Structures are given as C-alpha cells and as structure tokens.
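Lecture 7 notes: from sequence to structure.
We start with the chain below.
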Amino acid sequence: MHQTPTRGRPSKYSRHDNLLSCLLPGEKKRPTYISGIGVFRGQRDDTVWVKISLRNGGVYHGKTYPPGAAIEIKLGSKKSWDWKDSEEKRQSLQRVADRGEPLEPRPELLFKDHAKDWLANRKDAKSYFISSGIITNHLNPTFGNVSLKRISRKDINRWISTQAPKFKRSTLSRHFTTLKSILNDAIKDEIMDKSPARHVDPISGVTPRQRCLTTQEIAKIFEAADALDRNALDRSTYKTHEIIGWLRDYLTFALHSGMRRQEILHLNFGDFEPLDARTRVTVRESKNGSSRCIDCTEDMISIRDRMLKADRLPGDNRLFPLSLTTVKRRLTRLWKVCGVKDVRLHDFRRTHISWLVKARIDLVTIAYRVGHKDLRMLQSTYAVFQGDEDASDMAQKLFGHISANNAE
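Predicted structure tokens for the same chain:
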C-alpha cells in the first residue's frame, strides 16, 4: 500500500531505498522527496533529484520563478549518487539560491561571439569592413568556436605559423593586430584577466613603412598631376558638376594638413572657421573617432576659396565633391606616370610629419595636428630618420669648446 514518507532525514540504512519503497511496483510518477532529495523510478534507471527553494526568485533553464517558488533539479543516476553526495549537492545548490546567485554555470563566451560584439561597436569606424573580413575569413576558422578563456599563447603561435606561408608579413601583422584588439577588449569587459597575445613570438620580417618624400620627388609628382589636370581640361565633354583640375589642390591640401585621405574627402565648407587672424578647420570624421581642430596654411585657404567657385551639384557642400573611387583611380594613374618609385598618398602624411619634426616642432603638437592619441605611432612609424646633420651641428656647438681646450 502506498505510504506518504515521513518528514526528516531517512535512517542510516534506508536513504534512497526508503524513497523507492514509497512507489508501487511499475509506478511512474514525480520524484518522492525526503529532506529535499527525491528519486524518480524510470523504465531504464532510477534517477536522483533535489528540490531547491528560491526564496528570492530566480531563473533556471530560461524560465523565471517568483520568490518562494521551488524547482526540481536532476542530479543523475542513483547508481552514481549515494545519499551523502546527494545531500551535499543539494546543500550547495541551496546556498547558491539563498545568495541570489545563478544556479546554472554561465556558458563560456566563445571567441566568435565576442568578436561579433566587438565588431558591432566599430560599426561607424572606417576600417569596419576590413575588420569584418579579417574576422570572418582569418580568425573565426581557427578561434571562432574556442572559449576566450581557453585561447593560449601556443594557439596563437600555431595560428601564425600556419598563416605565414599564405600572406605577406604586413598582411599577417594586420590580422594579428585585429586579434589583439579583440582580446584586449575582452580584458576591458573583465571577461579575461590577461591577453594570451601579449607574449606571442614576433612576426619576422614585419617593418613599419617609412617613406618620406624629398623636395625633388614632390616636384615630380606635382608636375605629373598638372599634366593629368590639363588632359582632363582638354576633354571634349564632361558632366557639368564634374570638378576639373582638382588633383594638384587635393595633393597640396594633403601635404599641408597631414590629413588622411578620407578625412579630406569628408570636409565641408562649414568646417572652416575664422579665429583671430587665422582660419581653423575641424576634422570631424577621424580614424580614432575623435574630432580635432587644426590651423590652416595660406595654401589650404586658397584651395578652399577656389573650390567654393567650382561647379557642383545643388546641396553638395563638400570641399572636394569627389567619390573615393574617383580619387583612387586618379591617384593610381598618377603613381604610374610620375616617375617616383614606391609612392602612395599616405606618404604625403609621413612627409608632413617628418618635416615638422625636423623643423623642431614639438611632438605633442604634431600628434594632435595629425590625429594621434599618443606619441608611440608618431615615433615608430612617421618620424622618419633623414640624416643626423642637425645633431652633428648641435654636438659641435655643445662639446666643441671642451675638446678644443683639452687639445691646448
């Protein structure tokens, strides 16, 4: 006859068997509990369950429970859980519930999920699509289904060794930089304590590009630009709003301002503002996401005034009303015919910075002008060595009289 079990802890010899004795032979029903521990008689095996009281409410298996509710949690086969283990496990879970902590362990965050969140925060960044391609094609195939916390330095070194034969060193370095940025973001979110990429073996053969144009090279480039501008003027037909003869002005503006290609293309006439006897331009579309104001040179102001008179579509208030594709095509043609080897538009930015450094403009001022948050990139990549004549002259000035006195 079915009997309701008495309250209290079962005797030393009954334990789980007392629970099973409460069930009729062949009967299947909900677990019968004593002291929050129950056994369910199934067709194949008897399983142990525990009942946990949620005094503060909670969430379990995606379901929300109100304060005072109780939930049943399956431990496993009775063969694997004796009474002592069941009791200790129930007490442990009850303590967790009383503290209002989650009863289920949080699933480890996979690399691909955090990379997706990291990329979503860069939706407005200029390099968004490049970063998206690197993650999809080069990082996720190796790290995507791996927990962030389980990625090791050896894993990254192994990945670099497999990628090295496929890509140029500079390209692989770009992929690795994206990986480091994602891992560093996980540290900021307190998902990881330290980055496994911190002490990875250096990628051999990667050296930062250091190209500073000389006066003669700049003159050759401008001469070729003038020729291309003249050819454009000689065309029989062109659209009424098409800007003719813009190439020299675009290059000049890049050289005088040190701005990036897209920063120039995003400038509007409203970004220019007179200030005392000078004119400043506000760079709003910057790579690092922050705006900056820089003083204009006389040539920059002259270019602005010329562009004001150029034909353009109604409502187009851009300084250079050009598409990025148009600029890329014209510059590609320019590099082919100018007679200067290994040149690109970003070298105008490097030249701007390097010449200002040589003119002894302090690095903090230069870093602000070109949109760097600190001096590391400025010192490692942009401030190109151009000879030590100035240092030699200064050494003579400082120490010459000392050596002369010793000689006497």
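Points to note: Residues 1-14 have pLDDT under 50 and may be disordered. The radius of gyration is 35 Å.
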